[in-house]
Here is the input.
Amino acid sequence: QARLVESGGGLVQPGGSLEVSCAASGFTVEHYAIAWFRQAPGEEREGVSCITSDSITYYGHPVKGRFTISRDNVKKMVYLQMNNLKPEDTAVYYCAAASICGAGLYDYWGQGTQVTVSS
Here is the structure.
């Protein structure tokens, strides 16, 4: 059974750093692009970053230069390193798998991990 599980969320002060992780199982993750999305209360879901199966990376404008996505296909993990966090980064962060970045439909989704940026 295909599964994505996020972890690493928490409370961090503005300007701080946090890394969230996405663990994949039950499918050949190395053949998939993995994206991070986020959704804040009352807001629409927003694409944050994506990494292709060839490790080409993409970032949304609000996080470019602050966030770094990476993957380890041996461990079946994808990471999102978040630096210089801002209160507006507060959201539930989800990872999702698709054949390509920017796909209209994602095959698998995780359950999300909460990131709160507050003093």
Summary: The first strand starts at residue 3 and ends at 7.
